Amino acid sequence: MATNQPPEESGIIISTPTLVKEGRATVCLPPGVFYNPVQEFNRDLTVAVINEFSKIFYRDGIGRKAKKLAHVDVSDIEIRDDETIPELRILDALSASGLRAVRYALEVGGMLRVTANDIDPKAVEVIRENLELNKVTDRVTAVCSDAALLMYQSSGETRYHVVDIDPYGSPTHFLDVAVQAVEYGGLLCVTCTDMAVLCGRASTTCYAKYGSTSIPNTPHIHETALRIILSTVSTHANRHGRYIQPLLSVSIDFYARVFVRVYKGKEGAKQSAEKIGMLYSCSGCKSFSTQPLGKILTEDKSIKYKPAIGPPVDRECSHCGWNHHIGGPIWLDPIHDLHFVKELLTSLDLETHQFKTVQRMTGKTIIIVVTYSSYIVKMLTYILLLRREKKTKNITNIHIRNYKHVF
Q1: In terms of Cα–Cα distance, which of 295, 297, 336, 334 is closest to 312?
Q2: Contact yes or no for 105/113 (Cβ under 8 A)
Q3: Is the dihedral of CA 46, 52, 58, 61 positive or negative?
């Protein structure tokens, strides 16, 4: 039923007809279907993120263009008599049993129209049965199509506000069309389960799939993996005059999951060159530096795009004398939207949510909020120390161990 079947150790193959209850959904899985209970955290987190995004959608998307996060209360919106409340269109592009689509219909607030797609006709029959079982046929439509073709066919008012890509392995062959299928300001959710490739086990394979080379045996390999994914998504978006804003990026168990908003704009696409760059990692002491691919100058309210100046390091590390490994391109901008993560954390109420993994989700978001907030304060202190003691603008060449007390 599912193509590109993953290793059995990451899930189970159903041998007899089985009812699986997850969240508010109950689905019937026939023999031969692959079901991964470990990914319940992924599905719980996605439901929570889409719920939070739906608040933004109804706040910013009624009768006007979608805006970036304008932090106003939903109740402040005035709806004219000639306006109707729009439906939040969600695409579950690789639906398999339809579990995700059913959960979206039952657990995401607001007016929804969910499309559950799979290329296997047998899988689509299972999806339809599960829609009937959960009484969500009025909100979910089962479609049998190639996922890429379905997304290519969406345009204008048929674009989706949320596109969920959760394949086995790499999602790269879906990304080019996925960034086009998302409505302006919409949400793109991407899962990558080939973390070994992203973490440096096969650098050339990583380049073939993601257009970036990974560096093994670094203390930041999982964050680098997330930044490679974001760089790849951004590059695909930029080709079509679009750009991204990461909301949440997490490395979990054996996979990575990123949530980004996709916007349309040539200037935003151009400015992405400063948000993507190369990574220089010392093979000895593991210190690292980054080099953006572009440089933006603002003069008299005009923006000029210039070539970046580099590299930021010599061939040998100035701290230990070892050589540098070069990786990337990677995403250099923040990988989370702190305000969005804080709102997500607020919504994860242990008493009212039905998420089985709510404690783990809460822990993850707390770590992000605390780490990110502290990181800003620490980096400001770090930069002030550098300016005072080193009097240099190029902070990437100063080893962080000299200011370990700040951290």
Answers
A1: 295
A2: no
A3: negative
